[in-house]
């Protein structure tokens, strides 16, 4: 988005809600569509939050959501925009294991 001579860089922070009457599969489809739409509209980044022990949010693993979003987009930057520090060491360990399996 242009504002005069400078470019305003906008980002989205997604909590990845699982709405009443829906399921995780539909939420994943929704975020795929949202990140693609954000990319088309010129957003710079798409962030995922990290939440645990809730049935209404599916963002327990923002790194996996980020990889999914990156696989369905071309240029928008994706990543974790809110990480629980107490979960960080376990999350990093799991991410390293996952990346070793993928590579």
Automatic annotation (TrEMBL):
InterPro entries for this protein: Bact_Lucif_Oxidored, Luciferase-like_dom, Luciferase-like_sf
Protein origin, superkingdom: Bacteria
Please report the stretch or stretches of sequence annotated as the Luciferase-like domain.
11-85
The coiled-coil regions, if any, are: none
CDD domains noted in UniProt: Flavin_utilizing_monoxygenases
Record SUPFAM superfamilies: Bacterial luciferase-like
One Pfam entry name: Bac_luciferase
Task: Spell out the PANTHER family in the cross-references.
Answer: LUCIFERASE-LIKE MONOOXYGENASE (PTHR30137:SF19)
Give the protein's recorded name: LLM class flavin-dependent oxidoreductase
What organism does the UniProt record list as the source?
A: Paenibacillus medicaginis
């Amino acid at each position: 988005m242009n504002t005069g001579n400078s470019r305003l860089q906008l980002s989205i922070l997604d909590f990845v809600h699982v709405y009443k009457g829906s399921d995780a599969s539909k939420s994943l489809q929704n975020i795929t569509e949202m990140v693609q739409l954000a990319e088309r509209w010129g957003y710079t980044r798409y962030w995922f939050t990290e939440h645990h022990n809730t049935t209404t949010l599916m963002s327990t693993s923002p790194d996996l959501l980020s990889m999914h979003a990156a696989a369905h987009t071309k240029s928008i930057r994706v990543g974790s925009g809110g990480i629980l520090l107490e979960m960080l060491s376990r999350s990093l360990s799991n991410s390293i294991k996952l990346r070793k399996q993928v590579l």
